[in-house]
Amino acid sequence: KTIHILNGPNLNLLGKRQPEIYGTDTLDDVRTLCAEIAHEAKFKVELFQSNYEGAIVDQIHEAREKACAIVINAGAYTHTSVAILDALNTFEGPVFEVHISNVYKREAFRHHSFISGRADGVLAGFGIEGYGLAVRRVISLLAKD
Ligand code: DQA
């Protein structure tokens, strides 16, 4: 079973980008953390990142065939993208929304998420550990299937 971990714009710069907000861990660190957690439970993870909205939609379509669950940090598209919400609504498995920062402590435009209405759970403000917690939750939901 494979969990797809999807990342939106600017997250390729994780570790370098505004470290006072997002920390110094990189997307490679996210991959390693999630792969270790998944491995113990005989799950796999695949990590994707794109700065393009349509590419993220394509990655969600790919997940329809290949993934048992989606963990998504859509970055700024969280707050703007009906297209990503619509794509997630075509996916049948669990979806968890992750934000590295606590978006509720930040500007008001970050308080609304189009994705939360589809997500089975939302993690914000746990740093990159949020991705690991989401993977743990997927495992506890799906390990028996
Ligand atoms: C983010 C929060 C978003 O508001 C922002 O646009 C990001 C990253 C986070 O992980 O905290 O790019 O999703």
Automatic annotation (TrEMBL):
Signal peptide: none annotated. Keywords: Amino-acid biosynthesis, Aromatic amino acid biosynthesis, Lyase. Catalyzes a trans-dehydration via an enolate intermediate. Substrate binds at residues 73, 79, 86, 100-101, 110. The active site is at residues 22, 99. This is 3-dehydroquinate dehydratase. It catalyses: 3-dehydroquinate = 3-dehydroshikimate + H2O. Pfam families: DHquinase_II. One of its GO terms (molecular function) is 3-dehydroquinate dehydratase activity. It comes from the Bacteria. Belongs to the type-II 3-dehydroquinase family. Pathway: Metabolic intermediate biosynthesis; chorismate biosynthesis; chorismate from D-erythrose 4-phosphate and phosphoenolpyruvate: step 3/7. Homododecamer. One of its GO terms (biological process) is chorismate biosynthetic process. The record marks 17 as: Transition state stabilizer. Its EC number is 4.2.1.10. CDD domains: DHQase_II.
